[in-house]
Amino acid sequence: MSTERTLVLVKPDGVQRGLVAEVIGRFERRGLHLVAMRMLLMDRSLAERHYAEHVGKPFFEGLVAFITSAPVVAMVWEAPGAVALVRSVMGATDPKNSAPGTIRGDLAVSIGANVVHGSDSPGRAVEEISLFFEPGALVEWTSAAQDWVVSS
Ligand code: UDP
Ligand code: MG
């Protein structure tokens, strides 16, 4: 499986509830590599580009109001198959379906305030990363730290 990068946001509720370290810790312990991170207050323009697929849906205005209401922590995580891996660690969008053991399954009861965002496809990951980070803001891990290669 090829190495991928994906965008993760700790949403305003996660920041306000003191869950930034919890979210980072779950991805670190799973074994992904953190390659970029910044804290910011998203504005409407960025929210519309980030959530472009949801423009016009009934929940869109509430989603924009929520994501711009307080700072988020934006991160880029790297691993083989990182996009799907992050989605599985996050859990399902709707808390009724998010399994215990996932971030949302353990920490969220609301479909709106659900702690984290993760890109939903490799193509969107590339686009979303570019919304939050200049290319030079992403670090390279040293070869000594590459622990994904299993010899068999
Ligand atoms: N959302 C919402 N109501 C809905 C569907 C989605 O408030 O009925 C919010 C929710 O915060 C979700 C975000 O919109 O995380 C983006 O929706 P998406 O379907 O892309 O879910 P995600 O990719 O975050 O799991
Ligand atoms: Mg989504």
Ions, cofactors, ligands: which are bound? uridine-5'-diphosphate, magnesium ion
- CATH first level: Alpha Beta
Mean pLDDT: 95
What class, by secondary structure content?
alpha+beta
Name the beta content range: 15-25%
If classified by CATH, what would the architecture be? 2-Layer Sandwich
The general outline is: globular
Radius of gyration: 15 Å
End-to-end span in angstroms?
15 Å
Low-confidence stretches: none
Kindly describe this structure:
The chain is of the alpha+beta class and about 150 residues long. The protein has one domain: 2-Layer Sandwich (Alpha-Beta Plaits), CATH 3.30.70.141. About 35% of the residues lie in helices and about 20% in strands. It is built from 7 helices and 4 strands. Strands 2-3-1-4 form a 4-stranded antiparallel beta sheet. It is globular and about 45 Å long. The model has no long low-confidence stretch (mean pLDDT about 95). Bound molecules: uridine-5'-diphosphate and magnesium ion. Uridine-5'-diphosphate binds near residues 59 and 117.
